[in-house]
Amino acid sequence: MATAIAHPNIALVKYWGKRDRRLNLPATSSLSLTLAPYETRTSVESDAEKDECWLNGELVEGHKAQRVFEHLDRLDPWRKPATVVSTTNFPIGAGLASSASGFAALTMAASAAFGQNRTDTALSILARQGSGSACRSIWGGWVEWPKGQHDDGLDSHGRPIAPQDHWDVAMVVAVLNKGPKAVSSTDGMNRTMETSPYYDGWVTSNEQDLLPAKKAILARDLEALGTIMERSALRMHASMLAATPPIRYWKSNSVWAMDAVENLRRQGIGAWWTMDAGPNVKILCEAKDAKAVVKRFSNLAEATEILLPGGPAQLLED
Amino acid sequence: MATAIAHPNIALVKYWGKRDRRLNLPATSSLSLTLAPYETRTSVESDAEKDECWLNGELVEGHKAQRVFEHLDRLDPWRKPATVVSTTNFPIGAGLASSASGFAALTMAASAAFGQNRTDTALSILARQGSGSACRSIWGGWVEWPKGQHDDGLDSHGRPIAPQDHWDVAMVVAVLNKGPKAVSSTDGMNRTMETSPYYDGWVTSNEQDLLPAKKAILARDLEALGTIMERSALRMHASMLAATPPIRYWKSNSVWAMDAVENLRRQGIGAWWTMDAGPNVKILCEAKDAKAVVKRFSNLAEATEILLPGGPAQLLED
Q: What number does CATH give the domain A2-165?
């Protein structure tokens, strides 16, 4: 029995599309910030009577449970039945990166429960195969995920750029809609790859944003980073809007939020938005400005949360 | 002195981007519906003391006036000073195609005032040079505008597909914001062409929508036509969202309107939306369903209008 916690991460330079679906190898490199206090806590008991998975007190069944057990098989093909118990302190399946923290924590906990001793890089490669962006949640702070070149994906895993205390920023999450998303990230990615006439343009242009984004992080240049972040999110969503049938995660409040962020900037508050596969909006700002951003969103959002750079995934001692 | 009226047209398969900027030759073919009772009425007096242009009772000056006088020069390089008096019965500069009806009426009225006798095709070619989409407003009903192949643009003009009485449809305009647009169509097109990584994908994919749209019109298949129309609008806007800096004509109520249209369809009312270079939304439906569509939008929109297929531009007798 072992327990691990991991934080979700929000991509600033987005991951959308795969060069290998089975191994979750991305078509573009991406870059993220690991965020606390959101976290997933997962315990794995490796010698159970049968495979069982619990998430926030409810038994997980069907396809979702299958995905967890297959991930355990991946970690140890000769494993015995296992019980997985997982809890999150934030909404799941709403574009808040719950699968990233989930598969990072699962990989770390199960690996320990199975008596394995793996490097963070090895854990990241395995976590990626469970859910792509999970490979970034193995590390804290600012993390890049190069797309890699190799067919086996051994060169495509999270890699730390700067630690969580590098820069006092905040990510304000404006929860605009707690419901589950209409199209899963996986289905959305596949449909974009297969039907969007903008997919090639997405892959080429997004890759060019990685290096400038890294430079902006190292130079602590929020305007440069924020501009790249908004561009990457816009292009990701635009690539989906052009799919057949179109994929639109934006709701009217999402666009309201974009306008609100532009207004904040006009008022001198450095704030930039990003969005993932869901209607919620995340706003990057200096930590000192987080309360002003929250205030701006308090009327519209169902809830707001101030997230701060978080640490790496870690095993909890018994 | 001569007076002409022309109706605006709304593109179902969109025009966005040029293969020749001076001649307004489009990068893609487009297809539109000419719409009444919106109209522009323009009188040209060809033997005035000096060039003067009035629009809805106000003297037009600067760049906008220059554009009108240069168009008159195009029609007759040896012309005398002219007075242009134009009125519209709908908001201008708000993505409601006022420049289409404006330059169609201007071309027809000035041509007559200058004593010229031109075919509709010749008028369409000239109107196109004033404002691209104006070439479609020379005709009523369903009109295509092939991009053409020739450098001189003589093969790129409006061409009627079906007359106004071919099909009893309506276009409901939901005016969500009467203010002028933040970025003009011309500037928006140029920025998209120059900076959007999705521009090539836009040009290629939109062209493929023309033939199926024509077939849907001739077969009076509203679902097929509506699906193509939404796709073309989404892809046009997505190509702009990906530009640098991004161009976003969508406001929160634009997205609300998209959701509302999807809800109408779920309720069994065949309705599809399109949007141009402005936040307003236009909804295509069977004429018999127009009132139900208006009702759905009455709470949100500042104003709604039911437009019906309109006739060709025409010269008014004295």
A: 3.30.230.10
Whether B244 and A231 lie within 8 Å, measured CB to CB: yes
* pLDDT tens track for A221-278: 999 999 999 999 999 999 999 999 999 999 999 999 999 999 999 999 999 999 998 8
Q: Which two tokens stand for residue B296?
A: 């759905």
Contact residues on chain A for B197, CB-CB shorter than 8 A: 198, 201-202, 204-205, 235
Distance CA(B145)–CA(B128), nearest Å, equals 10
DSSP B289: G
Name which CATH class applies to A169-309.
Answer: alpha beta
Q: pTM here? A: 0.94
For chain B, give every domain's residue range: 2-165, 169-309
For residue B195, the 8-state DSSP code is H
A contacts of B251 (beta carbons < 8 Å): 255, 259
Burial profile A130-167: b = 16 or more Cβ within 10 angstroms, e = fewer = bbbbbbbbbbbbbbbbbbbeeeebeebbbbbbbebeeb
Token pair, residue B136, equals 């479609």
The 3-class secondary structure across chain A, one letter per residue, is CEEEEECCEEEEECCCCEEECCCCEECCCEEEEEEECCCEEEEEECCCCCCEEEECCEECCHHHHHHHHHHHHHHCCCCCCCEEEEEECCCCCCCCCHHHHHHHHHHHHHHHHCCCCCCHHHHHHHHHHHCHHHHHCCCCCEEEECCCCCCCCCCCCCEEEECHHHCCEEEEEEECCCCCCCCCHHHHHHHHHHHCCCHHHHHHHHHCCHHHHHHHHHCCCHHHHHHHHHHHHHHHHHHHHCCCCCCCCCCHHHHHHHHHHHHHHHCCCCEEEEECCCCCEEEEEEHHHHHHHHHHHCCCCCEEEEEEECCCCEEECC
* Residue B145 near residue B30 (C-beta atoms within 8 A): yes
ipTM above 0.90, yes or no: yes
For chain B, the residues whose C-beta falls within 8 A of a C-beta of chain A are: 196-202, 204-205, 230-231, 234-235, 237-239, 241-242, 244, 246, 248, 250-256, 258-259
